[in-house]
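Q: UDP-N-acetylglucosamine 1-carboxyvinyltransferase, please. Structure only.
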Amino acid sequence: MSSFVIEGGHKLSGEITPQGAKNEALEVICAVLLTPEKVTIHNVPDILDVNNLIQLLRDMRVKVEHPAVGTYTFQADDIDLEYLQTEEFLRKSASLRGSVMVVGPLVARFGKAMIPKPGGDKIGRRRLDTHFVGIQKLGATFTYDPDRRVYEVEAKHLKGTYMLLDEASVTGTANILMAAVLAEGTTTIYNAACEPYLQQLSAMLNRMGARISGVGSNLLTVEGVRELHGTEHTILPDMIEVGSFIGMAAMTGSDILIKNTGYDKLGIIPDSFRRLGITVEQKGDDIHIPTHDSYEIDTFIDGSIMTIADAPWPGLTPDLLSVFLVVATQAVGSVLIHQKMFESRLFFVDKLIDMGAQIILCDPHRATVIGLGNRFKLRAATLVSPDIRAGIALLIAAMSAEGTSTIHNIDQIDRGYQDIDKRLNQIGARITRL
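A: Structure for UDP-N-acetylglucosamine 1-carboxyvinyltransferase:
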């Protein structure tokens, strides 16, 4: 188990560029299974989850080339369907939650798929019902083997239909969309997720020959086609990294320029940080965070305590709630952080309390942060990263704390953030990897 040793109290200075978006990468890489032609994808992040998915495709006999940093070509013209039956495939895909999105493309193109009950972050119950019910409505049948913990999916013929999703699941919508593009007739998906990741996937599929309309809304209409073709696609900057860097700069009193942020696709993220009193300056596609001696949390118009809550897009992404919570500990004022979508993502709060933060954990979904400003610095501590997003929040806390902290289980952080220690050290951080 690897660890970070962080010497806190150092200001950052300079420029940093976010990696490609992890969530988008997992979707568009699965989409290469929809065509036998070559697909080129740029700005692919070099992180564990993405690399594991690429290796899984290699094992399925997808031809993968890596001609340049961040660029991959994929050609799925000779898929080994027998490999899906092997224990090796089941073991590898079980450890990678994003692998569930191979189901839609495989069923659409080959009429069958096999997927184990997925793993991933321990951040609460993450149902797959939306994926399966949607693909079932297109004509697929699902059989669950409880002994092997494996779902077998078959479909001789997918046919378009109307469906109202029970939740606006991002990966569920992506999976259904990738199945629907090769289904016969028209598919209407209502209550679809509309995150930028889905918009990017839809744009890529349309360039491949799909006919998807309503992109960017929660009502998608898909006119099925017989086949898809190759294309070239560039992944957006990772909005979670952009938000992490904004919070990190404010909390450490740093002056940094975040380059190539995909600002127009960030939604309410910049304004949400402004509600914490943080100055976020847009400069073209870059974001400048000036040095903050202090920052003060807004209140609502009637003077009541500010609430920051996650919601499906265009609401605030749940992946940044951990960052907002930790950044609020060094603000002036109080805020209620309401994590509505996952019930275990606030369970790292006790670590922040040990560091001296004033936080009341109301229940698994809500925490009240009483910001005492930078007059009361956090104390260094020995910490364990429970998941990717809490891990980056703990790293931010450690960078702002007085003294030297240690974070164990940083493999979790590596799953979502590419060489984060090296990149931060280049702009002034003091992080050692053990």
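A: Brief note, in case it's useful. The two ends are 9 Å apart (CA to CA).
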